[in-house]
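Lab meeting, action items carried over

1. Structure of the two-component assembly. Owner: GW. Status: complete.
Input record:
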Amino acid sequence: MEDAESGAAVSLRGLRRSFGDVRAVDGVDLLVAPGELVALLGPNGAGKTSTMEILLGLSAPDEGEARLFGRPPRRAAAQGLVGAMLQSGGFLHEMTGREIVQIMAAQYPRPLKVDEALRRAGVAKEARLRYGGLSGGQRQRIRFAAALVCDPDLLVLDEPTVAMDVQGRQDFWAAMREYATGGRTVLFATHYLAEAQDFADRVVLMRHGRIVADGSVAEICARVEGRTIRAVLDDADPAWLRGLPGVSAASVHGERVELHCQDSDRALRALLQRPARDVEVSAMTLEDAFVALTGDSGPRGSAGGHTVVTAAKEV
Amino acid sequence: MGTLVYTELRLLTRSMEFLVLAVASPVVFFLVMSEVFGGLDTKGAVDMTTYIMISMAAFGAISGALAIGSRVALERQAGWHRQLRLTPLPGWSYVASKVAASMVIVLPALLLIFLAGLLVKGVDLTAEQWLRVLVASWVGALPFAVLGPLIGLSAKPDAVSALTVSAFLLMAMFGGLFMPVEVMPEVMATLAKALPSFWLAEHARNQVEGAPIDPLGPAVVAAWFAVTAALVVVLYRRDSQRV
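Predicted assembly:
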């Protein structure tokens, strides 16, 4: 890896993409080295799917450039280097799982055996059934087999475990680990923070089309200074809570209050002016960091560390 | 692309509605219509039963080809074309596979009607005439194999089947497949000669009569094919940028 950029599995530079007035992707720079397992996190509408579509060559950016293994996305796809599971990509219900994987396999120069791909995805038995008759989790695994069958160096997965039950998710990630041990690269978007925590070596947090944090889970948690205060408070007013000294973000669920604080001592003193009970102060979890960094009241992605400072690149 | 066409055909054989619509219904129309009108005199070289047989074969070829091509709309809705776009498959080959599958499925649709003509209605043609009629009808279906994907790419999924049915009914009606152009008012007869549906049947009738082919026919068919194919390419390009 003498040259990080040309050797990168994924290289995104200054990507922008708007749909009408909505800036879905608003200046994304990202380098993923071969062998990395990267989770892309962010609330709905953060731009994860749009970013993935650009890096797969399904849509063109308004500005910027995406490269996979130093090639334009379409060429990387044509060489069978990329497998993808799309959120909106679908298969025809009348086809059997096996037919779907067969069709995909037939397009590639050096595919896996169809049976091998089905086995790795854990759907060898269900593959003779029609896709339309399968459960949500089984469909996802057929889709995984279809993404896997080209034996790609890079897997791009958009919410791969949506519609899977707990067991299904565990099996899925076990299959993914097996795949990734060969030094292959995985980039996945997910809503389940636990999946990012358990599986990814690196987490990229997006908000409003930008990357607001990028690093290991520990680094991301450390990025959000301070602690979380949880308490029970009657008639809690979110605006008042946010205005408290030392508080960076606040959320209210019924009478339960959650405060993300840079300075929990000051925040606590202020909070206790009201009859708050069951008070609990804890260090940041990934979930807290996620809320703090991607919530609308959270800090902007401009602090140091691994954060890509996209705002500074704006002309 | 071979796997794509092959799977497409296998899927179609599983779809009862499709087989009934495209393959069986023209045969039923043929048997009913030839029963009712078969005795009439066409005042031409082709007797009425043969005339109706050729018209209904054309009708079957058109409805079959359009039905397959317009499936593009439903497959787009399902996201299938996006999935294929992730593969090395060149973009055009998805549409091309639809055209190929349409042309393949048109053959049994034609054969079934000709078989009904031969076995049930006793249509009496030489082997060479049968072959020429078959080839003329098959080649004449080409513009429709391209028109199907055009409908599929341009219409919204819920409008597609209505549009497909209107397209083949209009093509059949104004192309003289339901009533011969000879009995049409002059304006309609002139319009018919601008439609590929008329020439599909007319070229097949020419093969029975041994009549020379009017050069206008191949020109009209080629023009429809070229314009439709060009529109498909334009729409496909626009579509690939949008997804």
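2. GW to write a short summary for the group page. Key points so far: Chain B has one domain: 2-242. Chain B touches chain A at residues 2-4, 7, 10-11, 14-15, 75, 78-80, 82-89, 241-243 (CB under 8 Å).
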